[in-house]
Amino acid sequence: MNVIYKIISNFINNKSLYIGENVTMSEHMIQAAMLAEKAKANDSLICACLLHDYGHFLLEDPSELVEKKLDGKHEDIGYEYLKKFFKEDVVEPIKYHVIAKRYLVRKKKYFNQLSEASKISLKLQGGMLNKKESKEFEKNKFFKDAINLRKFDEFAKKTNIKMKNISQYEDLLRSKLL
Ligand SMILES: [Fe+2]
Predict the structure, then answer these.
(1) How far is the C-alpha of 102 from the C-alpha of 130, rounded, in Å?
(2) For the chain, N or C: smaller number of CB within 10 Å?
(3) CA atoms within 13 A on the CB side of 101
(4) Neighbours of 3 (CB within 10 A)
């Protein structure tokens, strides 16, 4: 099956809720892309936002992972799959968006505004980066994109907002294929 078709059908058919929130995984990723568009991000970053948690679709049951206190490493699972099809500047920020969260929580203000579910998953993801890890991460080519993705991610959990539809992103997805 064509990968774009597969992605679109997963977005439409997967009804699982984003862990601990009141939006579905699909709605969450679409909202992240909408926020990136609103902030006039480039197409690659919009596409990265749209696919950033795609690894959850590839995992059997994400809610199980939190119940069992395991982190599914969804960013790696998504990255490994998507890099076979999409350009580097789409998939690299996806790979680093969890590290970006671990970096950003070094600022107390950022930590305080995380949702409860996000605070719980932070622990499972390894907690705050230390100084050395942070310095290392700042040197990453995709540091800025990963940080921006993570910021859109955090606010993409709203209910009752006018949503775009995954099919409206079909051309964008196609334009970022390898
Ligand atoms: Fe997310």
Answers:
(1) 9
(2) N
(3) 24
(4) 15
| CB-count exposure of residue 68 (10 Å: 0-12, 13-18, 19+) | exposed
Q: Say how many Å lie between the CA of residue 94 and the centre of ligand 1.
A: 10
Domain residue extents for the chain: 22-156
Tell the CATH topology of 22-156.
Hypothetical protein af1432 (1.10.3210)
State how far the Cα of 74 lies from the Cα of 58, in Å rounded to an integer. 8
Report how far ligand 1's centroid is from the alpha carbon of 75 (Å). Answer: 9
Length, in residues, of the chain: 178
Confidence at residue 64, expressed as pLDDT on a 0 to 100 scale: 47
Q: What digits encode the pLDDT tens for the residues 117-154?
A: 889 989 989 999 999 999 999 999 999 999 999 999 99
Quote the ligand 1 centre to 134 CA distance (angstroms): 21
Residue 163 CA to ligand 1 center (angstroms) comes to 16
Tokens in use for 140?
């990453």
| N-to-C CA span, the chain | 17
Q: What angle do CA 93, 13, 74 make, to 5 degrees?
A: 30
Provide the residues around ligand 1 (an ion) whose CB is within 5 A: 53, 153
